[in-house]
Amino acid sequence: RESEERYRNVVMHQTEFICRFLPDGTHLFVNEAYCRRFNKTEEELIGTRFKPVIHPDDREKVTRLFAQLTPDHPTGKIDQRIILQDHDIVWDRWITRAFFNDDGTVREYQSVGRDITDRKEVEETLRAQQHLLEGVLDNISDVLAIQHPDHSIERYNKAGYDLLGMTPEEVKGKKCYEIIGRDRECEPCATTRAVQSGQKEQLEKFVPELGLFLDCRSNPIVDEEGNVILIIEQLRDITRQKIAEEQLRISEGRFRNVIELLPLAAAIIDPDGNYTFINNRFTEMFGYTLEDISAGKDWFTLAYPDPSYREEVIAAWKADRSALGPGTARPRKFWVRCRNGDTKLIFFQPVELCEGSEFILYEDITEDRQVYDLLIKEID
Fold first, then answer.
1. How many other C-beta atoms lie within 10 A of the C-beta of residue 283?
2. Largest separation between any pair of C-alpha atoms in the chain
3. CA separation for the pair 247, 374 (Å, rounded)
4. Cis peptide before 220, with omega less than 30 degrees from 0?
5. pLDDT tens for residues 157-181?
6. Relative to the CA of 232, which of 42, 112, 244, 372 has its CA 20 to 30 Å away?
7. What is the mean pLDDT of residues 324-347?
8. Residue 296: closest CA among 268, 318, 315, 273
9. Is 347 exposed, middle or buried (0-12, 13-18, 19+ CB in 10 A)?
10. H or E element: which one contains 350?
């Protein structure tokens, strides 16, 4: 009896909620923590069929738990919400054990519970944050992958699964290169470089298995010791851009071939005023190569050595360009000093292109001017 009393005192002062009750709910024993939980005294509970108010959404699973207790499996565990007297809703975790008679009927139950409200709130906060993060990731059009340093995939965002036509279950744990049908890592590989350097790596490559040009960016996540533990890989489809660049390159090549065959000198100047192309006729006419006049200011210095005349030419160039928009020719005549020291009268025909570049044709009209001067002299 002394041992039983000592055990009872220990149970009474436990922080867990402890109770024993009959199948009809009549309470046989409650400890102090149980009484405090439901704001009842021991006298108010013992011998009564007190039932905590279970949250409506949890009542069915509580009923199911008790129904599943058998002599072979007498113990069950459940997380459930309780509505207290002050209408606060709390989370409890209860472990219930059923005690059976020899005929297999339940004699009584013992339940031990504890408050897990704080844990549930943390879990709910984490779930909400996880849901928000997944929502953000799944609304990014680029493919995002979380992978381990050995290239095994942890997960993709929605764009990744859509691109591969696979489910998360089919992808998780597989190497990224295995997913596209390879038996070894791609070469080059931004992830391999990021693992080796511990820094962000970026490269562009064509992936024939996908039929895509991809901009690949791998960002390493390191631990406190600087070891790479995860890689965040971002893949952007740049196929259209690459096709457009190739078409532009072909178009520019054809355009330059046409310019090269022109009987007139021609040049292209970018929006920053730098010469990016001159044809052979330009060098034949003036003697200057692209290296001589790559910067626009170099052309003005060489072609117009007299400072006052140079300022006049530049002022006229700026005024014409300001007054006339893209696609309109701005013809002008200026004297130009050639590399060999000769001076030629040139008929300029510059046209501003839509992207801000300039296309210029140059015609040497020095002989025409000389003939004109002779005619004037004869008339005089």
1. 15
2. 148
3. 52
4. no
5. 999 999 999 999 999 999 999 999 9
6. 244
7. 92
8. 273
9. middle
10. strand 343-352
Distance CA 250, CA 29 (A): 90
Q: Nearest Cα to 198, choosing from 165, 226, 240, 167?
A: 226
Q: Are 147 and 154 within 8 A, CB to CB?
A: yes
- 24 in Cβ contact with 49 (< 8 Å): yes
C-alpha distances in Å from residue 207, one per residue of 140, 177, 234: 21, 11, 15
- Amino acid 10 reads V
Question: Could you tell me the pLDDT band of residue 135, with boundaries at 50, 70 and 90?
Answer: confident
CA distance 89 to 45: 21
Residues 6+ apart with CB under 8 A from 301: 310
The sign one gets for the Cα dihedral 70, 114, 29, 84 is negative
* pTM score, whole prediction: 0.52
Q: Which strand (E) or helix (H) includes residue 147?
A: strand 143-147
Q: List % helix, strand, coil for the chain (3-state, nearest 5).
A: 40, 30, 30
Residues, the chain: 380
